[in-house]
Amino acid sequence: MTQAYDHLAEWFEFLNDDCDYQKWSQYFIEGLRKRNAGKKGFDLGCGNGTFTRALQRAGFEMTGGDLSEAMLSKAVRLSREEGLSIPFYKTDAANFRSPDRYAFILSANDCINYLPQEKLAAAFKRIAGRLERGGLFWFDVSSEYKLTEKVANNMFGDDRDDVTYIEFNTLKKDRVETDVTLFVKEGELFRRYDERHIRYIHKRDALLAALSAAGFAVEVEGHLGENTFQSDRLNFICKKVSS
Questions:
Q1: What CA–CA distances, in Å, run from 114 to 94, 228, 241?
Q2: Per-domain residue ranges of the chain
Q3: pTM of this prediction?
Q4: Which of 12, 35, 177, 183 would bridge with 190, disulfide CB 3.0–4.6 Å?
């Protein structure tokens, strides 16, 4: 059993091609412009760099960071293939450090779900410290409703020509543990890879309390701006209001 995304990184965007990354990226682009965010941004937990590249193409000055070296390698490769010059480096939300300050920090697609509850307060304070005054911290989480009612104790899979994906999800007290199996075609055979992911269940009120303590004013909306009631994904759009 390997670490999260050691092998899934290579196939992540391919297997998630049904989530409409173009529409999702445009949601962030329009939201940042609407809120008069500055140009300099950091994509924290950037994964393959999907949103990093989209924001760069839209005129923002992006940097990307992720804990997974495999994800970062794919992000660098895809950026170069698109002719984009984007710096990427290894970092994580729990111990985020940077010599620079940013107009906004984006952390999309469950990055914060990978943080245990006891690390949230310190992580939010670190992130606030790397924002300019009035800067935005925009992150989403898979909602408590989604993780407990839809994901927990269920199996999901996807069978393609060159890769088969299977995941088994187990609900624990404060988290969902996901065992992922990949069968990847190599020549005439398929090689099996296994890795484990842990997503922590974050309650809305606990997130709001930690964000307030870190000096943020917060608005919350569902996925792509929908109503938050039973939304699978909650967006926390946080403005730094204290130094």
A1: 9, 21, 26
A2: 8-142+202-240, 147-199
A3: 0.94
A4: 183
